[in-house]
Known about the structure:
Blueprint: H1 3-10, H2 29-32, E1 35-37, E2 42-48, E3 75-81, E4 83-91, H3 93-109, H4 116-154, E5 156-160, E6 165-169, H5 193-208, E7 212-217, H6 219-224, H7 230-235, E8 239-240, E9 246-247, H8 255-258, H9 264-275, E10 278-281, E11 285-288, E12 297-300, E13 306-311, H10 313-316, E14 327-330, E15 342-349, E16 354-366, E17 374-377
Parallel strand pairs: 1-14, 7-10
Antiparallel strand pairs: 2-3, 4-16, 5-6, 7-13, 8-9, 11-12, 13-17, 14-16, 15-16
Helix pairs in contact: 3-4
Amino acid sequence: MTETTDRLVRKEVALGTIREIEPPLNHIGLQLFPWMPVASDDVIFDYAKGLTDGMAPARAEDAESELAQKDLLFGGTGRASVIDWAQKDHYSASDVTKYRENLLVQGRLGELNLPLTVGNMVSDFQAKVAREDALRRRKLDNRLEWMTMSSMSTGALSYDDGKISFSVDYGRPAGQQAQAPVGDLFSATTSDPIGEILTVQEFMYDTYGVRITRAIASRKVLNSFMNSDRFIARSGMVNLTGDGTNSTSGDPVDLNYVMDGWGPSAAQQVVERATGVSFIEYDSVYRTRPVGSTTITNTRFFPQNRILFLPDANDVSDIGNELGLGRMLTSPHPEGNWQPGFYEWEQETKDPWGLNRGTGVKAFPVFPHMDLTFTMDVLA
């Protein structure tokens, strides 16, 4: 029995690709700082600062009025350069030729659909190309998310792949970067999450006149709110000594076990109501695996121990014109018909003949008002 006949008798079928369960991969960068199309890779934006004199001086009736005070910081100019991010897959001459031959065989067989393996080989190659298209797009999405969340985490953005290197400082003051709580870390029972957040809100309002109403944090940070023993006092319960009598000392009360409906989410709601801050839970990662290695590393876009505080959207809606608190700039590319955003291309090559398929985007984030943000490291 020939190999072809043997396969026909066994009716081989391909079950396709089985994927493993993936960790959180949701992206929020473009939701917070959406696209802003620009006409060129190099852009300039002007910004104006408020006047330094808060009130006009008095003058005598017969005296000449004083000249209004001005300084060189009244205006300024910012610059940004949009960077091209792209990746491609190469299909060799044999890959494409076999696919083409299988298509011809499948077409000539018509309704017979024989041998069954021909259909599998055609659909498998199409699925392979589609998977690699989706993977390239996912890597671009990850790069955009990395640029946004790295900038928000550190107040700066640095990149070095050995060929291209750049570093941008968006100007978050040192006193607002990765600050520790005034009291204990949120992992301690003596911590004061509500008090710490109110302190940040008061500082930002007194300094910049903005209200802090949004925050980004990991599930671990949000779960840590209930560690504070202040929630036990709020419940009206006290600690119990070994003999069961009420006391202000002894074994701590765990509200998870003595109050229905109490837990991390309940503590988060208490903090949100007390401070007016809405928390966005964020634990997204990107995955890396060196070529030839079986070890996969999940790398977070944003530190697990950090809270990012953002000003109220209404407070920043009228600053910076279209830029606002920040935007993701994107410029045109010829392969995208000179339109901004994502683009794709195919390229045939000779000697040896083959096919390249690629995906890219020209993009770079701009944050002209990074000083209106605040980060705090609340866990060790």
